[in-house]
């Protein structure tokens, strides 16, 4: 059995993305004890899946590395991966939380040598790369994964691959007897930082995502551009593997739409502007980007970034939300619509269409096992009724990484105030 | 200019948006348009020359106060009521209904384009069905077919002969309607009273002279 050391002065952080890690670190660095639970087998969340950040075009792995170093150096944080909260009872200053731990089938002995991955044969969809590729059933989620330990896919149990993985491991790290278990722990305050998910593009039916292979989403495009991604960083079309040099970006794909997400997702304008850099970087003057937009929301200091992209002759802007996408006989997507500047109809052929899908809060429609107020989009709201449970990051609003970190720091401070009060009361 | 047209132009001065909001069915939605263009791009009359101004442009013209251009435009008469724009509008504007509302208002003011086929059909249909409370199919098709002259009417009628015979066989069309027989509403007076009341209420709500 796993035992968790926690008291009513412990802060529980749910979700180990950039917001959850930040909240956990900020609280722990003030001397609080923190339990961090993460559903995936690794920390970093969606930030780890980005190729580059805007506006500085630096690599997220850099900031992630700093945070991981802070984490490894801090004995006050206990991290549980493959862990999900299933129940919360009690009240502010005295919660009892049930956490379900799913087996990794690999224990602490793992050195990430990779022998088990070489030994097994079966493959599963690569969730880290948004299922754009396959991984072996014994895999390291990504190069910088923390904990730096392999994972066995649950489908492996009872197959010859399980025995192969076990036999290949020189360190006795493969443990096929691990079972799912539920642990109970105490906490004084809870930070809910479960992040977001990309809006399901198949629901935007006129764009035919899922039907036309060359219509992809912005998060998938990040993986295509990343050297660690399924194409080794080459921007290739999913249909025929040809280089995609003429790329359309469709803004507000799902966002600002009463039929889909009613809020502005805020990051997608900057996301697409950033992604035009990937096209420029990959193909130089041969790479053409077209951004179809309602209006570009590059707020405050991002205006400079927008101005620079606008000055690039290889990037064009069409003020219009594409009404529908068709496909020509060569598999090229064709965007149809009416340009608001002049009200002219267009039907433009591209190599690849990238839908700038919006942020759906991961808490939407999910039964958080506690009383938490949500706004009309499903984001957690600041509310006195939430008492000792505080939202952080994209569980509370559509935020970019920078603002998610600010939000997490604020949530950590509120959680600290709660456990401080508990500590004073108990003398 | 008709009396009503002069009256309305004077009442709302140069604020055409206000006029549309108060006088046009669903007109209060016009200000919600964010000019994304999904309505225009979703219209099945794609590249049809009749759509001089797509809905998105009409909404912008209303806001820009282009009263005469909007009201005399044939564009809203081209709407086929497919509701594609209505279901796809990200702001949930009832675009189809606004188009119909604008067309109807332009007609009331007497500034709608003359000899517009959709308008002719609407007027014929309305007069036909409000007379007895039921549509007289024979008279309706006669009026429409013979609109462009005797020969054109006969030609059109012959072209549709098989459809008509099918309808007669299926008892969906009674040829006696040509002589004034056929289905009618039981309480024709009641229907007329109801329509008169509706007109009275509309006039009151929109601050117009009762017809």
Question: In summary, what is this structure?
Answer:
Helices cover 23% and strands 25% of the residues of chain A. With 427 residues, chain A is an alpha/beta fold.
Explain this structure.
- The complex is a heterodimer of chains A (427) and B (211).
- With 427 residues, chain A is α/β, with parallel strands linked by helices.
- Chain A has three domains: 10-102 and 180-195 and 362-425, 3-Layer(bba) Sandwich (FAD/NAD(P)-binding domain); 115-168, no CATH class; 199-358, FAD/NAD(P)-binding domain.
- Chain A has helices at 18-29, 60-72, 115-119, 160-168, 218-225, 268-283, 303-311, 401-425; strands at residues 10-14, 33-37, 77-80, 83-91, 94-101, 123-125, 134-136, 138-139, 151-152, 181-187, 189-192, 196-198, 215-217, 246-253, 288-293, 315-319, 324-327, 333-339, 344-349, 352-357, 359-361, 389-391.
- The longest helix of chain A has 25 residues, at 401-425.
- The model of chain A has no long low-confidence stretch (mean pLDDT 94).
- Chain B is mainly alpha-helical and 211 residues long.
- Chain B folds into two domains: 3-113, Fumarate Reductase Iron-sulfur Protein, Chain B, domain 2, CATH 1.10.1060; 117-198, no CATH class.
- The longest helix of chain B has 18 residues, at 188-205.
- The mean pLDDT of chain B is 91.
- The chains are: A alpha/beta (427), B mainly alpha (211).
- The interface between A and B is medium-sized, with 20 and 20 residues.
């Amino acid at each position: 059995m796993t035992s968790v050391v926690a008291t009513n002065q412990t802060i529980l952080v749910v979700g180990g993305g950039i917001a959850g890690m930040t909240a956990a670190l900020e609280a722990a660095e003030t001397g609080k004890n923190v339990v961090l639970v993460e559903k995936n087998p690794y920390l970093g969340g969606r930030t780890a899946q980005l190729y580059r950040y805007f506006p500085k075009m630096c690599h997220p792995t850099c900031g992630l590395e700093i945070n991981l170093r802070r984490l490894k150096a801090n004995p006050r944080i206990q991290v549980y991966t493959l862990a999900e909260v299933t129940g919360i009872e009690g009240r502010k200053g005295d919660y009892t939380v049930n956490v379900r731990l799913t087996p990794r089938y690999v224990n602490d002995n793992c050195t990430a040598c990779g022998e088990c991955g070489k030994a097994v044969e079966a493959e599963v969809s690569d969730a880290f790369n948004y299922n754009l590729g396959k991984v072996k059933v014994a895999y390291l989620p990504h190069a910088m994964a923390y904990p730096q330990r392999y994972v066995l896919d649950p489908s492996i149990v009872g197959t010859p691959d399980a025995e192969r993985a076990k036999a290949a491991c020189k360190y006795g790290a493969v443990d096929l007897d691990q079972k799912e278990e539920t642990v109970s722990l105490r906490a004084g305050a809870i930070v809910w930082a479960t992040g977001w998910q990309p809006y399901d593009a198949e629901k935007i039916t006129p764009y035919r995502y899922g039907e036309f292979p060359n219509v992809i989403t912005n998060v998938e495009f990040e993986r295509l551009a990343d050297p660690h991604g399924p194409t080794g960083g080459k921007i290739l079309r999913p249909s025929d593997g040809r280089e995609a040099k003429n790329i359309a970006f469709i803004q507000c794909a799902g966002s600002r739409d009463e039929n889909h997400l009613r809020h502005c997702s805020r990051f997608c304008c900057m996301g697409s502007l950033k992604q035009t850099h990937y096209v420029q970087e990959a193909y130089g003057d041969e790479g053409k980007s077209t951004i179809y937009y309602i209006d570009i929301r590059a707020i405050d200091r991002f205006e400079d970034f927008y101005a620079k992209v606008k000055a690039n002759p290889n990037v064009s802007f069409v003020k219009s939300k594409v009404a529908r996408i068709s496909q020509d006989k060569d598999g090229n997507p064709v965007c149809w619509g009416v340009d608001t500047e002049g009200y002219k109809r267009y039907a433009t052929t591209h190599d690849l269409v990238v839908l700038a899908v919006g942020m759906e809060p991961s808490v939407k429609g999910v039964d958080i096992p506690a009383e938490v107020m949500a706004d009309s989009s499903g984001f957690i709201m600041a509310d006195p009724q939430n008492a000792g449970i505080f939202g952080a990051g994209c569980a509370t609003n559509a935020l970019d990484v920078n603002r998610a970190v600010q939000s997490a720091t604020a949530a950590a401070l509120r959680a600290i105030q709660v456990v401080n009060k508990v500590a004073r009361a108990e003398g | 200019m008709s009396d009503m047209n002069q009256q309305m132009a004077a009442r709302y001065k140069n604020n055409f948006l206000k006029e549309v909001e108060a006088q046009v069915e669903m007109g209060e939605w016009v200000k919600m348009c964010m000019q994304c263009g999904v309505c225009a791009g979703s219209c099945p009359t794609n590249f049809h020359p009749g759509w001089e101004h797509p809905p998105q442009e009409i909404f912008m013209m209303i806001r820009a106060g282009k009263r005469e251009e909007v009201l005399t435009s044939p564009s809203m008469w081209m709407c086929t009521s497919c509701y594609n724009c209505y279901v796809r509008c990200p702001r949930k504007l009832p675009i189809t209904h606004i188009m119909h509302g604008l067309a109807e208002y332009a007609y009331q003011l007497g500034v709608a384009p003359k000899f517009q086929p959709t308008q002719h059909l609407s007027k014929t249909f309305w007069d036909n069905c409000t007379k007895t409370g039921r549509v007289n199919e024979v008279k309706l098709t006669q009026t429409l077919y013979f609109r462009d002259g005797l020969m054109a009417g006969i030609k059109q009628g012959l072209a549709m002969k098989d459809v008509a015979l099918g309808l007669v066989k299926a008892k969906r069309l009674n040829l006696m309607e040509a002589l004034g027989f056929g289905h009618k509403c039981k309480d024709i007076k009641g229907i007329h009273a109801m329509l008169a009341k509706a007109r009275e209420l509309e006039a009151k709500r929109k601050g117009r002279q009762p017809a």
